Amino acid sequence: MFQKLTIEDCLEVERRNLVKESLSEIGRVDGVLKSFITVLNEEQIEVNEGPFKAIPIAIKDNIVTKNIRTTCASKILENYVPPYDATVVRKLKKAGFAIVGKTNLDEFAMGSSTERSAFFVTRNPWDLSRVPGGSSGGSATAVASGEVVAALGSDTGGSVRQPAAFCGIVGFKPTYGLVSRYGLVAFASSLDQIGPMTKSVRDAAILMQIIHGKDEFDSTTVDVKMDFLSHIEQGIEGFRFAVPVEVYEYEGLDKEVAERFEECIKLVEKLGGKVEKVKIPTLKYAVATYYVIAPAEASSNLARYDGVKYGLRIEKAGLKETYSVTRTTGFGEEVRRRIMLGTFTLSATYYEAYFNKAQKVRRLLANDLNAVFDRFDAILTPTSPIPAFKIGSITDPLAYYLMDVFTTFANLAGVPALSVPFGFAQGLPVGIQVVGKRFEDPKVLRIGRSIEKFSPYNENGRIPLPVVRT
Amino acid sequence: MIRIDEELIRHLENLARLQLSDEQRRSIEKDMREILSYMELLNEVEVSGVEPMYTPIESNCDLRADEIRPFEDVETIKMNFPRQKDGHIVVPGIHA
After folding, report:
1. Which fold has domain A2-242+378-454?
2. Facing residues of A197 across strands?
3. With a CB-CB cutoff of 8 Å, which residues 23-62 of chain B face chain A?
4. φ/ψ (deg, to 5) at A313
5. Cα–chain center distance at A134
6. How does pLDDT run along chain B (96 residues), one tens digit per residue?
7. Under CATH, which number does the domain B6-43 receive?
8. How many Cα atoms sit within 13 Å of B81 on the Cβ side?
9. ipTM of the complex
10. Is pTM, for the whole model, over 0.90?
């Protein structure tokens, strides 16, 4: 029973034993699923008075938690104990949520499968031979399997939405600047946002209500107060939706994913939405633009791991040698690859041709999207072109990056984007992505709620969840 | 198309403070060639006169006053020092 509880369900039940139930569920299934890098003992779990008192929640292990090890799934931070809480963690604790553990991810959030964790691979609760997606794969599996009621992830190019889609839950990437990044270990600072991963769209709205807002410790946060819940049930009658023709032109689109997408469009029309195909010419440059900008920012952000003040140090005769050996040993293959790529595109000779060029294309893409949002309330796409793939089946780096085809544009433009479950392909969950205008986050969730409420694959508006056999 | 060769990889390694093995170097060389060739796609786009978009934030960021505030848990910061002496970080010499 505990496994299926949403945050809203928890508000209606006796909550005294929820933390115990969460820990017992983790004990039962996590040996197989491996969602968690760190699970707390009951005595370590802080439970404060608050409206959401004792509701078990998980936090991706690249969001810092005071006195709880935060590793980023990297050997370089394997024993790092943060002296402070991220702003989002502080807010959740104040609201009463009980943090029971820290979830697995691709090292420093660089990946789409959670296979690139330095510690272990997390499994998809729908099919244990498949990846949960990534990089927030630990959080997605923990929520879908019912180890916890909800979780936070982070999304730089799809890392909340794609694992949510692969595991059949809701994942939301807010407008850039809406949620504080203070205490989120930086990957690509102009793209990173923390977002909720939940068993219902309403739960995502509840978490957004708590975590959003101006933070003096993150100067990119914007001073807006939003109401995520008041209008969420009001439907989408008269809303205009754009479907990029580029979705249909994409060769790698799975046939059954395409079928679910078509069905979802039909549903949206039935609910009173007007759907139109549009051409967004710069959309096809999103992945190339993203893989110039994100590794560039990463190579700069990850320069801080030098073995001096915290984290791994492999001491050699001189300081320079200590830096190099520490970093080469501490970072995994994918992180090294992105640091090298970013060092290249930022180097004096190539800066203009790659980094600055990509930032200009980013502007054109954002302009194109803004023009679409002048005429439409939202853009619809599948979240991922394919459902969850087999562990170990995609090894070529470029093929792996190209899976981000529908997610990266939202980060480049800083707009809000939601993945909501909609049926299955080859027995695996499919996610539909709803993308909105900057700061129209409540509208995006309202659209997602309508899809969830009336999806023929849901029972009374509740998404189906997997039964984990161990 | 620029030339990706061992010399370039070694140069980047030095800039990034990494020390790759021969095998890692060959593997990254191959990956970079493939990835950068995909990025040639961006050359199709006419960008003259376009302002780069370094961040989605449109307005200037508000800055707070630069005031010193004592941190409440200095001990945990010190606990993370890889090596220390009398509360100071110890590192190998720069001239070694």
Report:
1. Amidase signature (AS) enzymes (3.90.1300)
2. A151, A171
3. 24, 28, 31-32, 34-36, 38-39, 41-42, 44-45, 47, 50-57, 61-62
4. -135, 125
5. 7
6. 678 999 999 999 999 999 999 999 999 999 999 999 999 999 999 999 999 999 999 877 777 889 999 998 999 999 999 999 998 999 999 876
7. 1.10.20
8. 14
9. 0.95
10. yes
